[in-house]
Structures are given as C-alpha cells and as structure tokens.
Design goal:
By secondary structure, the protein is of the alpha/beta class. It folds into 2 domains: about 200 residues, Rossmann fold, CATH 3.40.50; about 200 residues, Rossmann fold (3-Layer(aba) Sandwich), CATH 3.40.50.720. Helices cover about 35% and strands about 15% of the residues. It contains 12 helices and 13 strands. The chain has a 6-stranded parallel β-sheet. The chain has a 5-stranded parallel β-sheet with strand order 10-9-11-12-13. Strands 7-8 form a two-stranded parallel ribbon. Helix 6 crosses helix 8 and helix 6 packs parallel to helix 9. The longest helix is centred in the middle third of the chain and has 31 residues. It is globular, with a radius of gyration of 24 Å. The protein starts with 12 loop residues before the first strand and ends with a strand.
C-alpha cells in the first residue's frame, strides 16, 4: 500500500485526536476543514494509519479527499501530543465478560501520554462512560504528570453523538461539554465552536457523562418495549408494523420505535450497563435497564427460532440440509459497521446448529476478526444473484441497506423472513414472513 506523509512532522499542532474509529475520524476531518488548524490523528493500528496516509477511508460513509492531507498528520506515535494544544480522546469503552465497564484502553492510553503532557494543554474525553469517570479516573492519571488540572492543564468531557450512515450533518448536531472548572469549560467550548453550530455547556463533567448514557438508555428501553410487543402481537397474529403506523398518527404523547433482529453498534447494547455498574456502587439496582438489555439481546434467538419454524412448515427439509441466506450483516443500514451486529450472532447460532449459512452485504466483503466470534473471521460474502437466491431455502433480511437489489430477492426466493419491514406488503412470489 502506498504511503504518504511518512516524514511529515508538525513542529506545532492545534488538535490531536486519539483513536480514529467511527467517532475520531469524522471529528478529525471536521477540524481539518478549518484551514488555519493543523491536526494530528493517532491510532495504534498500523493498518488504519496506512489507509489514511494513502487517502483512503475504512468507514463507508466517511470520505477522504487527498487534498485534505495537507494539514493532516497520521501516526501511531503517542509522543506527538507534546506539540499540540488540544488532545481529544475517542477510544473504545467496551464491556468485559461480566458486562462491567472496561476502561483499560482509555486508561493505558493516558498512562502512555503522561510523560508528554505540557502546561496549557486541554484534554477532552469523548469516549462514552459512567458518571464520575472524568473526575475520578482521568484527572488523577493526568496529574501524574505533575500538572494540576484546572490550573496547569485543563480537562473536560464531551459525549460523542456520531450516528453512522445518518442524514444528520455532524456540525448540525448540538455539542455538549461538561467540565469541573471554568477555564477547562471555556477552552473546550472555544475549540468545538469552530465546527459545531450549537454548543451547550454544563459546569459538571458527571452531568455530561450522565446525559450521554440517558440518551442511549432511552432508546434501549423503548426498543425493548416494541420488541416485546412484537412477540406478543405475533402470537395474536397482529402486524406490529401496522400497529406502529397507526399509533404514530397521534400528534402527541407517542414516538415511534421499531422492532428488529437485535441491537448493534457501540452505544445501545453496551452503554446502559455502564450506568448499571455505577448505580450498584450507590446501592441501586437498575431493573428496568437490565430487563431491556435482556429483551434486546434475546432477539437474535427469536429470529433464529422463527426462521427454523418457517423452514419446517414451508421448506420441509431436515435442518442439517437447509441453506440460509442472510441479507445485510452490518448492524445499521447503509454502513459497514459490524460492531455488536445481531447478524453475526444469528450466523453463529446457525453455525452451532450446523446449518449452512451465507450472507450478502454490499458494504462488507468479509467478516473481520471479532472478539466474541473469532471463528467467523474471514467468512466471505456471496454474490446476490438468481442462482444464490434460488438455492437458499430461506432468505433472512437483517439489515435493509438501500442499495440492495430487492427485486432479485422478491422474484427468486422461496421463503423470506423480513425483520425490517422492507417488503411492506406481500408483493413477492415468495412466502413472506414478518419477524
């Protein structure tokens, strides 16, 4: 792969983004558009850095113009933070096997930064976390440098609100900043006002941290509710999609949420457990939050069960001889984001039952190495054509990307399990089942 800018070093930079994933990369490119700014992006994955240096993006809805590279520097070298004024941390905050917060990536990164912190810098955490992280964990780590937060060096929390594949332009999404001292808040507001139309500030990092969790828990609980309603209404032979459509005619007191095959992405499946863990330190059990998590995480099993039930009824084959074709494995429509995708869990459940399963996704050529599913690494998509659709006993729509040829699916499928209401009416030769 051709490399660009390998020898370019800025003597002084304005902003350094740590972590160039679905949050960090769009943020970096937004700052780069401000011509007077020099921006550095740091990530420990050499493959990502080489992609970016060659002017290529690994995120489907984030494009890089080679002309943008002039004021950009990509590196794996953490000591470059010593030359920058603002350090913005956009690193993953996953869960461990016990569904407890795992902040090791953020913590280890900060420990590596300590020798390079300098007076006058501002550090901003964007990684989603539990209330109190900025003050209780990040601040003490920074002060290992001998610099005092609020006096020598400044610290804030600003929750990311990236929505992959969204129609919303990042600059139009209001930005929230929380900090525990006035100068940290003012410094952070100053830099974010360069790229966001509206910036809301609060003199508490914990309130900003809690706001992000509240946004995601709200969605998790409401999606769980509609998933449970779907299961109930299926038993009653009532179409949940029709119910939602009619309920949505009410101009007040109702907001539509939609059922699906399970939750994906970093936010909704993971973030609520950060508050659950923290609440237990205060003697509070988060029953509502945990129940919604249980319902949402059970949906892939529900889809697999319904698929096998439909196959038994309409295909009349032994399970071991079935061929399943899954349409869409990204967790979200019109993206290549596989994080926590329910499609991967569904594929794995079929694998455990020794049922042959293939997938097609226009954005994903093969399944990358995944922490929970290493055995699926390298599984490649098949082509979406007459032959492959006809061979499939059941076509299972998990992610309804816009650029899929649904006419082929409609014309040549035997049975379609539609988890996204893509086929709103039975205008297909196949047996159509809403699931």
């Amino acid at each position: 792969m051709k490399k660009i800018n390998d020898n370019k070093i800025f003597s002084k930079t304005d902003i350094c983004i740590i972590g160039l994933g679905y949050v960090g990369l769009p943020l970096l490119l937004a700052f780069q558009k401000i011509s007077k700014l020099k921006v550095v992006g740091i990530d420990n994955e050499h493959k990502k850095i080489n992609y970016l240096k060659s002017g290529r993006s690994y995120i489907s809805d984030v494009k890089i113009n080679k002309n943008q590279l002039k004021n950009l520097l990509f590196s794996v070298d953490i000591n470059l933070i010593k030359n920058t004024k603002y350090i913005i941390i956009c690193l993953p905050t996953p869960l461990n096997k016990k569904k407890q917060p795992d902040l090791s990536i953020v913590k280890n990164s900060l420990i590596a930064m300590v020798p390079f912190f300098k007076k006058g810098q501002t550090v901003i955490l964007e990684s989603t976390t539990y209330p109190g992280t900025t003050k209780e964990l990040i601040l003490p780590l920074i002060e290992r440098s001998g610099l005092l937060v609020g006096k020598d060096i400044f610290l804030a929390f600003s929750p990311e609100r990236i929505d992959p594949g969204s129609k919303f332009k990042m600059s139009k999404i209001p930005k929230i900043i929380g900090a525990d001292d006035k100068k940290s808040l003012l410094n952070s507001k100053k830099i974010y006002e360069l790229i966001f139309d509206k910036v809301h500030t609060i003199n508490s990092s914990a309130v900003a941290e809690a706001t992000k969790l509240t946004e995601n828990i709200f969605r998790s609980v409401n999606i769980a509710l509609v998933n449970e309603l779907k299961i109930i209404f299926d038993k009653m032979n009532i179409n949940i999609w029709d119910v939602i459509s009619l309920a949505n005619t009410k101009p007040f007191g109702y907001m539509p949420f939609y059922p699906g095959p399970g939750l994906g992405g970093h936010c909704i499946p993971i973030d609520p457990y950060y508050l659950t863990w923290k609440a237990k330190q205060y003697g509070v059990n988060t029953q509502f939050i945990e129940l919604s998590g249980m319902i949402n995480s059970s949906m892939p099993s529900y889809v697999v069960k319904n698929t096998l039930k439909a196959a038994k009824k309409y295909v009349k084959k032994d399970f071991l001889n079935l061929n399943i074709l899954i349409i869409g494995v990204a967790y979200k429509k019109n993206t290549n984001d596989l994080r926590e995708s329910p499609a991967i869990e569904i594929i794995d459940q079929f694998r455990k039952k020794k049922i042959n399963t293939n997938f097609y996704d226009p954005y994903i050529r093969e399944i990358d190495s995944m922490r929970k599913y290493p055995h699926l690494s390298g599984k490649k998509r098949i082509n979406l054509n007459k032959k492959n659709v006809s061979i499939a006993d059941v076509v299972l729509i998990i992610t309804d990307h816009s650029n899929i040829n649904y006419s082929i699916i409609s014309k040549y499928s035997k049975v379609i399990i539609d988890t996204r209401n893509r086929f709103k009416t039975n205008q297909t030769k196949a047996i159509l089942i809403k699931s």
